[in-house]
């Protein structure tokens, strides 16, 4: 569905490099901007806005679902800086919301009240490494 929304009707394994670029190109700027905001001096509000922009693109590509949209709206209405789907989307998909630590319990409660399972996770200070 995602590839089709970008004018490509082949299976992912059959795509040429040019076809992959056509699909990926609109998302590259947001991905680079997200990377810049994920550093120690990044701006959480800007990162949340980028989450929202990316999700709007994914929603418009047809890979979201009613339940994903509802969960995202709950997060945003309860103080999240931003939220977006993650993974393959569709029914049974998942979202990630960027929230202030002090707002996490309220958002988790609002999601639970609407029947969604959710958990709190922190952004790691250090990525994967060898010791």
- Could you give the order of the helices and strands? HHHHEEH
- The percent range for strand residues is 5-15%
In percent, how helical is the residue content? 40-55%
Report how far the terminal alpha carbons are from each other: 41 Å
Number of helices: 5
Task: Give the tally of β-strands.
Answer: 2
The Cα radius of gyration reads 16 Å
- What does the overall shape look like? globular
Oligomer designation: single chain
Strand adjacency order, main sheet: 1-2
Mean pLDDT over the residues = 87
Category from helices, strands and their pairing:
mainly alpha
Largest pleated sheet: 2 strands, antiparallel
- Low-pLDDT runs of 5+ residues are none
Keywords:
131 residues; mainly alpha; two-stranded antiparallel sheet
How would you sum up this structure, described in words?
It is built from 5 helices and 2 strands. The chain is mainly α. Strands 1-2 form a two-stranded antiparallel sheet. It starts with a helix and ends in an 18-residue tail after the last helix. The protein is globular. The longest helix has 21 residues, at 17-37. α2 (17-37) runs antiparallel to α3 (44-60). The model has no long low-confidence stretch (mean pLDDT 87). β1 and β2 (94-98) form a beta hairpin.
